[in-house]
Amino acid sequence: MTVHPGDQVGRGDHIANVGSSGTTGGPHLHFQMTDRPSVVLADGMPYVFDTFELTGQTPPLADVLRYYDTLEPIPIATTRTEERRDQLPLGRDVVAFAAIPPGR
Description:
Distance between the termini: 21 Å
Largest sheet: 3 strands, antiparallel
Oligomer: single chain
């Protein structure tokens, strides 16, 4: 992580690298926005992304669970790919964000 509790972040700020800290089914990043100190399981504030690319979807959780102990790649369905605007990705969505140019 490159941010710490109490830090304020803005558009394009690097907050963390994607990674895997164990048998998690693959590299990923969890984050939430809050208006006061919180624990990970607390409710966060709603937000949307200006734009992101939906690159695929994972299978339903019941089908994904078998991959967690094997470290095999989770299959990603790429039948629904498109640019999304002013939305929040859903739980099974796999997304990509455009790179922010240096000096944004």
